[in-house]
Amino acid sequence: MSRLVPNEDYSVFTFSLPLPAIAPLARDPNLQPLCTASDSKNVTASRLTTLNADVQNLIMSVLPTADLSALMRTCRYLSEAALLPLCARSFVRLNNRYKVASFHKFLRINSGPSTPTPFIKALWFDVPSRPHSNDDIQAYLGILRHCQQVRRLRLSWWYDDIHPAFLFHVIVTSLTGLEELDLTVRSNVSEKDLRKLARLPIRKLQISGDLKYGPDALSAIVPLGRTLVDLSINLRCLHAPPGGSFSGVRRLRFHCYHDASFVETLTTTFPGVTHLTISGYTARSYLLKEIVHERNRQVWQKDPTAWRTLQAVYAMEADGLYALGLVRRIAHLSVPFDHLLTLINNTMLAKTIADLCPAALELRVDLVSFSNMSPNEIGWGVSYQAMLQASPRLVLCLDGLRAKEYYCDRTMMFLDALENYLTNNSTLTHLLVRHVFNTEPSFSAKPDSARIPILAQASRTLRWIGFEVNGALQCWEVTHFEKEGSTGRDAQVTVLVNMSEAAGRRVLAAEKMDEFRQ
User: Fold this and answer.
1) Which of 37, 60, 223, 341 has a CA-to-CA distance to 105 between 20 and 30 Å?
2) How far apart are CA 333 and CA 312, in angstroms?
3) How far apart are CA 144 and CA 107, in angstroms?
4) 3-class SS of residue 337
5) 275 Cβ contact partners less than 8 Å away, ≥ 6 residues apart
6) How many CB atoms lie within 10 A of CB 67?
7) Can you tell which superkingdom this protein's organism belongs to (predicted)?
């Protein structure tokens, strides 16, 4: 027996009045005449503007003074009320000259105290290399110069005509309170340019792109060590920066490399890491990967004091995590799971998970990779069950971003296998089934929340279960008890008590199941 509380469904109603319903009003004789049917074909854009002004003046002329005053106050109130929410949405991708010009116009830079520039806290530029005109460059730089309260800046690209030294000078002198910077570095950016960033109180820094001076990039930003807590950097190789380390960095993202001193340099340069993201691995040779894994594993075992603060690991690729050879007990581990892993690397993840002993495991299933799998293939099930046994807390993330046409079949395949595992030998206490889409799923194979009570009833150990679609969480506390006078599976009664989303998020945080949620 199980119980679910369904969600309420709300419909949206819109109302609009056709234009002819308000047209037959007396006109002010001082206004310009409206066009007739005979000359309607010759109406120009300026004539439409006049018509719009006619309507505005007409409304003003028929309103009493008190009502007109009330209308002005209402319009001002609505303008002020909408300003802050609108400015809060400023972190949108400005990826062409028209969007940059439109945003520059919205700022009303020369309008004095009425400009909204003090309320802009985040910016994202991704403009093409070649500007169309000098006005494009001035609009780009004008936004950076005048939005001086920006705390978050993302520069995916900028105009070729703007030299990096000048661009960095504008950023450093204008955005003096900048805390987050996502920078795509180009080949003409030098170490000297990067050193300018040290004048900013940056707490989160992501550097990617063509790092011509890759080995020196860490040296250039060493002064940021006093404020930096989150660093993502893609280097060709890792060299210990002379003159200091990044002792304040807690979240680190990097590529794994096969240098013999990589682990030692990593732990001495970033001694206080708590959350680690491994973005990839450079060498693809299986033999080299095995050699690097064993060598690094021995280094971790010889120095148990290194990275004792580590709590969570997110692996974008299984190869990078395996090559790192990490041996530590951690609270959370997030790993990818695809068909290729079950065929040729079926023991790689198992070895890694055994060395990390995660209290909570996130399994990110790539459904697309299983699209052409034979129905009789059993290898995937063995690997999948090994993952389910790895931790008492499981986040099963089903990636439907590119899987519309076969999402339903593959989802049911994984949920059926999960149900079978829960029935026979489950040790799970907390389960979150997370469905990920780029938009709200409009196809027929929408995730079915009716599966939740079935999964809950299949397990005798489950205490909490959640169901998330595109960030919206439904969750339940699970209670099991035995019926008096009954035996076997029928003797177990399962009750699901609905929890609020906020309460569910607190459970996920307490159980370390959502450490890398954005």
Assistant:
1) 60
2) 6
3) 11
4) strand
5) 250, 251, 252, 311, 312, 313, 314, 515, 516
6) 10
7) Eukaryota
CA-nearest of 251, 193, 200, 196 to 226 is 200
Token duo for residue 379: 């290898």
In whole angstroms, what is the distance from residue 118 CA to residue 177 CA?
Answer: 12
- Residue 237, amino acid: C
Sign of the dihedral through C-alpha 270, 275, 276, 279: negative
- If 0-12 CB within 10 Å is exposed, 13-18 middle and 19+ buried, where does residue 66 land? exposed
Residue 437: HSE in the Cβ half-sphere, 13 Å Cα cutoff:
16
Sign of CA dihedral 124, 126, 130, 132: negative
Residue 195, SS3?
helix
φ and ψ at 23, to 5 degrees?
-75, -45
Contact 307, 296 (CB under 8 A): no
Please, are residues 57 and 31 in contact by the beta-carbon 8 Å criterion?
yes
- What length is written for the chain? 518
Helix (H, G, I), strand (E, B) or coil at 58: helix
Half-sphere exposure of 285 (CA within 13 A, CB side): 7
**How far is CA 498 from its chain centroid?**
27
Identify the residue whose tokens are 């005053």. Answer: 69
List the beta bridge partners of residue 363. Answer: 335, 396
CA 465 to mean position of chain CA atoms: 23
pTM of the model: 0.80
| Residue appearing with tokens 């919205």 | 106
| 145 closest CA partner among 174, 109, 172 | 174
Cα 233 to its chain centre, rounded Å, is 18
pLDDT in tens, the chain (518 residues): 444 433 433 333 232 333 333 333 333 334 344 444 444 444 444 444 455 667 767 777 777 777 777 877 887 777 777 888 888 888 989 999 999 999 999 898 888 888 899 999 999 999 888 888 899 999 999 999 999 999 999 999 888 889 999 999 999 999 999 999 999 888 888 888 888 998 999 999 998 876 655 556 788 888 888 899 999 987 666 777 776 789 999 999 988 888 888 899 899 999 999 999 998 877 667 778 889 999 999 999 999 999 999 999 999 988 889 999 999 999 999 999 988 888 776 678 888 999 999 999 999 998 888 877 776 777 788 888 888 888 999 999 988 766 566 667 788 888 888 998 888 877 899 999 998 876 555 554 456 677 888 898 888 899 999 999 888 899 999 998 887 766 666 667 889 999 999 999 999 999 999 998 76
